[in-house]
Each structure stands twice: as C-alpha cells, then as structure tokens.
C-alpha cells in the first residue's frame, strides 16, 4: 500500500504504552485509506500534508480511548501527551522546566507524570527489589505487600458495629467518646467541658467501654 510506511511510522510513536503495535498500525492504515478517499488537491499542496494530520489524529483518539487501564481525567491525559512530546523533542527535563515549556503549573505536571502507570500498571506479580528469599527459594511480590481482603472486611464490619453501638449511648456519653477518642482531649479537659472531676471522667470512660464491649459481644453471639 502506497504510504503505508508513513502510517506505520506514526503508529510506532505510540508503541509500548499498553496497546499492541499491530492494533495501532491497523488504526493508522484505516485512517490512511480514509484520508485517501477524502483528499482533494485544493485542500493541500500534496497528499501527505493532508494525510499525516488525519492519521495522527485517528491514532491519538484510539490511543486516548483504549490505551488507559486506569482512566485519569481528560486534562491529565492531554497534558501527559504534551509532556511525552516535549520529552521526545528535548529529552529528560526537570518538572520546573516541563511546566515552563508546557505553560502549566508544576503541580499539574506532577499529576500528569504520576499518571504514567495508568497505561501499563505494574503487575501485582512483579518481584520486589532484592526480595528473593534464598533460604526458601521464594520471591516476594508486590501483591504480598497488600493487606488481606478478609482482614479488611472484618475491620470494616467492626467499625460499623462500633458506630451503631455508640449511637445507643446517652448524649453526654457520646460527647465524652468524641472528645476523648476523636478530639484526643485529656480527662481533665473533658471534665471541665461537662462539669465533672477528672476522676469522674475516668469512671465514665470505664463504664462506656464496658457497655460497648457488652453490646459488641452480643452482636458476635448473634452472628
């Protein structure tokens, strides 16, 4: 096919970002055919002047729509494409210079750079650096560092049960719990706020804890 090498060259610019090279080339070829059908000599000096932007636009749209495993907001996608182009033209640049060339704040540059893994996220089976255990012959992976699912669900259920139990307390007892465990206030400060002594606050907290333990224990038996 005439000018097929041009289409392949454009597709090659987006290689290694999560989409098979063959798929990108196919998109470029289809765009080349579409450009050939839509070309008129009065629209451009020659065919490639018209075809190259058409092919590039089709490949970029395909890549934008299909190349993200995790899809960040559109402005982040577009800025990342701009930064990739700048990098290919000028080489590796610090964030401050990238922001200056792209005419955007440094924070936006950092957000776009942080989204680079959205094309091809790191596999959970990827080994951790220097993580091989020669004594057992095993290799620790990224997935090994994640918390277990069951533990997370159990913790969530416990928090929900505790929230429900706290709602059954008297208003003053709820206030004491909030000040002590959410606002991290001392017993003397709590006593001043509710008009009792520090010793009384200590007794109130002990009573509340016993009451909550009893309610949570009843929930466990019911389950």
UniProtKB/TrEMBL annotation:
The keyword DNA-binding applies. GO terms for biological process: DNA-templated transcription initiation. Coiled coil: none annotated. Transmembrane segments: none annotated. InterPro entries: RNA_pol_sigma-70_dom, RNA_pol_sigma70, RNA_pol_sigma70_r2, RNA_pol_sigma70_r4, RNA_pol_sigma_r2, RNA_pol_sigma_r3/r4-like. Gene3D superfamilies: 1.20.120.1810, 1.20.140.160. Residues 6-69, 165-213 form the RNA polymerase sigma-70 region domain. Pfam families: Sigma70_r2, Sigma70_r4. Keywords: DNA-binding, Sigma factor, Transcription, Transcription regulation. GO terms for molecular function: DNA binding; sigma factor activity. This is RNA polymerase sigma-B factor.
């Amino acid at each position: 096919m005439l000018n097929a090498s041009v289409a392949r060259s454009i597709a090659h610019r987006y290689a290694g970002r999560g989409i098979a090279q063959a798929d990108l080339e196919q998109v470029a070829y289809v765009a080349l055919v579409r450009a050939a059908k839509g070309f008129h000599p009065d629209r451009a000096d020659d065919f490639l002047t018209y075809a190259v932007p058409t092919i590039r636009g089709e490949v970029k749209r395909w890549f934008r729509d299909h190349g993200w495993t995790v899809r960040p907001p559109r402005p982040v996608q577009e800025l990342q494409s701009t930064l990739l182009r700048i990098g290919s033209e000028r080489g590796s640049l610090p964030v401050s210079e990238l922001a200056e060339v792209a005419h955007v704040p440094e924070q936006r540059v950092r957000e776009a750079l942080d989204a680079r893994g959205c094309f091809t996220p790191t596999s959970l089976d990827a080994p951790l650096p220097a993580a091989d255990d020669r004594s057992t012959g095993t290799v620790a992976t990224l997935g090994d560092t994640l918390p277990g699912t069951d533990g997370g669900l159990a913790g969530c259920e416990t928090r929900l049960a505790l929230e429900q139990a706290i709602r059954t307390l008297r208003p003053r007892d709820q206030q004491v719990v909030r000040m002590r465990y959410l606002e991290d206030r001392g017993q003397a400060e709590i006593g001043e706020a509710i008009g009792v002594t520090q010793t009384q606050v200590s007794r109130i907290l002990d009573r509340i804890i016993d009451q909550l333990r009893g309610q949570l224990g009843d929930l466990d038996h019911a389950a």
